[in-house]
């Protein structure tokens, strides 16, 4: 299993990185959004700038993300 997929999501059972993915994101204290700079109070934070970069959708839960490692079963949005 690659470094990015060394953890298992307790919700869906899929491999995930240590930050979790959108089924069960891992909270980090004092984390700021790299797109808008605001404090992230919800790990599913989607600011306007991040929404503009969304490139993947999950075939399992329907959530969207900028990177595939944040989703259970990612598929590139065409």
Main sheet makeup:
3 strands, antiparallel
The gyration radius over C-alpha positions equals 12 Å
Shape: flat
**Beta fraction:** 15-25%
Total strand segments: 5
Indicate the multimeric state: single chain
Distance between the termini: 27 Å
Average residue pLDDT: 82
Compact description:
Helix content is 6%, strand content 15%. It is mainly beta and 78 residues long.
Which helices and strands, and how do they pair?
Elements: E1 7-8, E2 15-16, H1 48-52, E3 56-58, E4 64-65, E5 74-76
Antiparallel strand pairs: 1-2, 3-4, 3-5
What does it look like?
The chain has 78 residues and is mostly beta strands. It has one domain. It has one helix at residues 48-52; strands spanning 7-8, 15-16, 56-58, 64-65, 74-76.
Name a few traits of the molecule.
single chain; 6% helix; 3-stranded antiparallel sheet; 78 residues; 1 helix; mainly beta; two-stranded antiparallel ribbon
